[in-house]
C-alpha cells in the first residue's frame, strides 16, 4: 500500500494551506469555485485515466494500491486533481498582497 501513503502528505498540506486562507475575503466563493473545478477535474481524470490504462500506456502494481478503483483507475489517482483544485487557489490567495479594507 505505497500509493495511499504517498497521497497523505499532499492531502494534509492541501487542508492546512486551504484552512490558512479561511479568514481571507471571499473564502466561501473560492471554496465553491474550487469544488466545481475539482468536480470537473475528477470527471476528466476518470475518463482519461481509464482510457490510458485500458490502452496499456501504464499499469500499477496491485501490491502498492489500496484496491479501490473507479473503473480501471485506482482511487489514489483522484487525490492529485482534488488537491490541485483547492491548493493552487489557496496558495495564490496567500501569495497575493492583502489590500486595506475600505472604510464604510
Automatic annotation (TrEMBL):
GO terms for cellular component: membrane. Its main location: membrane. This is Lycopene cyclase. The chain crosses the membrane at residues 6-23, 35-58. Keywords: Carotenoid biosynthesis, Isomerase, Membrane, Transmembrane, Transmembrane helix. Residues 8-95 form the Lycopene cyclase domain. It is a multi-pass membrane protein. One of its GO terms (biological process) is carotenoid biosynthetic process. It is found in: Membrane. Pathway: Carotenoid biosynthesis. One of its GO terms (molecular function) is intramolecular lyase activity. Pfam families: Lycopene_cyc (PF18916). InterPro entries: Lycopene_cyclase_dom (IPR017825).
Amino acid at each position: 500500500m505505497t500509493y495511499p501513503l504517498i497521497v497523505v502528505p499532499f492531502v494534509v498540506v492541501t487542508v492546512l494551506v486551504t484552512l490558512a486562507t479561511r479568514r481571507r475575503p471571499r473564502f466561501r466563493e473560492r471554496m465553491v469555485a474550487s469544488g466545481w473545478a475539482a468536480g470537473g477535474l475528477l470527471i476528466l481524470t476518470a475518463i482519461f485515466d481509464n482510457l490510458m490504462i485500458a490502452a496499456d500506456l501504464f499499469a500499477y502494481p496491485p501490491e502498492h494500491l489500496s484496491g479501490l478503483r473507479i473503473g480501471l483507475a485506482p482511487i489514489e489517482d483522484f487525490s492529485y486533481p482534488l488537491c490541485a483544485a483547492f491548493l493552487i487557489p489557496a496558495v495564490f490567495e496567500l501569495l497575493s498582497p492583502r489590500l486595506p479594507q475600505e472604510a464604510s
